[in-house]
Amino acid sequence: MMFQSVFLWLHDTSFGTVIRESTWAEPIIETVHVLTLTVFLGFVILLDLRLLDLAFRHTPVSRIFRHLNPWLFAAFAVMLVTGITLFAGDPVLFYSTIFFKLKMIMLVLAALNVVVFNLTLGRTLEQWDVLAQTPRGAKITGLLSLVLWISVVACGRGIAYVLPPP
Amino acid sequence: MSTLADWTLAFCRWCNGSFFGHAIRDSTWLFPFVEVFHLLALALLGGIVILVNLSLVGVRFGNTTTPQLARELRPLMLGCIGVMLVSGFLLFSTEAVKMYGNWAFQLKMIFLVLAIVFTLTLQRRVIESQQTAAGVRWLTAAVSLLLWLGVGLGGRALGYVTTAASAVNG
Fold first, then answer.
1. What ipTM was reported for this prediction?
2. Per the structure, how many domains does chain A have?
3. Is A42 exposed, middle or buried (0-12, 13-18, 19+ CB in 10 A)?
4. Rounded to two decimals, what is the model's pTM?
5. What is the count of residue pairs from A and B with beta carbons less than 8 Å apart?
6. Tell me: the pLDDT tens digits for A58-83?
7. What residues of chain A lie within 8 A of the CB of B72, using their CB?
8. Domain range holding A9?
């Protein structure tokens, strides 16, 4: 297994140990992880709907980005920290599920989608910012983002479902 | 009062025995499948609620006013509540009788009714009214967030309560 040493290190970190041994750490961190979805995924979906011309049609895309981005980044940071903490409880067990691997692949693809958008259409945002119709590329980005993030959530649910409760 | 409890329990029994209760219980993947819809609607609903409340306490999103923002998001919000109610009911029907005695579930239902009523009545009036005091707007946002948070926490807790109960029962 190529991640063995990382898993071992995570497993033995202080937070990995707390997750395994405390009664309340896992439910509390899991709850924070799930409820932060309201900010992260909720705002991502709203952004995607704007790119797809389905919401906030009269507000420039750049303005939506500007207002939602700080919240998105903060929420993503919380999801990342809580996610890694939960994972540290038993990295090998998580990795053994197909849903965890799928979730990580979807996560990487979703991140790639953001990078590609920023390098292409994001650079010319001023040109189509206030157009009545977003360009086709923006719609594809929005749709891909929706599909990928929904897959991430579905796989996350799948992990909880195949792993027996502690 | 006992009649109401009897009726509720009878309804839970009916849900348990209904064809969808059976179908979702007996299938390996139907439950998580429905649950994903519940979660996605939760995410979007939460996002909308947070956005509207931020706007209510003075966080400006460009030159969009709070009533405009709320009106624009209302169809989406009602859609989310609809998806959550339907998917939530389907999930509930797989173990309705167990949920009947689950304190976290009871708490969640109380918060849910309060949150929906508050959102559609008092909060809506505060949003639409142009000259409410800042204190009232802050209070409205706080109550809205707390009620929905209660629903969310109840939802998280009910899973753990069931787990604990089933571990005790065998």
1. 0.86
2. 1
3. buried
4. 0.89
5. 81
6. 888 888 888 899 999 999 999 999 99
7. 55-56
8. 4-162
